[in-house]
Structure formats: structure tokens, C-alpha cells
Design brief:
It is a single chain. By secondary structure, this protein is α+β, with helices and mostly antiparallel strands. It has a single domain (2-75), classed as 3-Layer(aba) Sandwich (Glutaredoxin), CATH 3.40.30. The chain is 34% helix and 36% strand. It has helices at residues 15-29, 65-75, and strands at 2-9, 33-41, 46-50, 53-57. A hairpin with a 2-residue loop joins strand 3 (46-50) and strand 4. It is globular. The termini are close together.
């Protein structure tokens, strides 16, 4: 089973985005995942990781939940 980690910047108010990503991933991959962990961070971070692989990084990618779901699907 695979664990997905979503690290989000608390001071930036990215909790809602992180929750949207979490919801979409659980809705699409529910039983395939061990879980989707929300991890607090700082300095503008919004990153989605599967093990040590970054599949989404706000610093490099446009925020699009559907694209994030596709990126996770490609890693699974």
C-alpha cells in the first residue's frame, strides 16, 4: 500500500487546498492507498509526495487538482 503526503504552508492558508487534494485522492484511489497524510509546513510550501517522489510542487506546477490526481495515478 502507498502513503501519499501533502505538505502545506499553515501561515499561507493552504489547508483548504491540501484538503481538496486529499479528498480527490481518497475519492479516486481510496482502497489503493494506505492513507493521505496532511503535514504542516511553512515558507509557501504545497507539495504532494509519494514516498520520496514529488509529484506536485506549487513552486514548479500550476495548482490543478485534476492534474495532481493524474500525476499520482502515474506513480501508482
Amino acid at each position: 500500500m502507498t502513503l501519499v503526503e501533502i505538505e502545506y504552508c499553515v501561515p499561507c492558508g493552504f489547508l483548504e487546498r491540501a484538503e481538496s487534494i486529499q479528498h480527490a485522492l481518497l475519492e479516486n484511489f481510496g482502497q489503493q492507498l494506505e492513507g493521505v497524510l496532511l503535514q504542516t509546513g511553512e515558507h509557501g510550501v504545497l507539495q504532494v509526495r509519494i514516498e520520496d517522489t514529488v509529484v506536485y510542487d506549487k513552486q514548479e506546477d500550476t495548482y490543478d487538482v485534476d492534474e495532481i490526481v493524474r500525476a499520482v495515478r502515474n506513480e501508482l
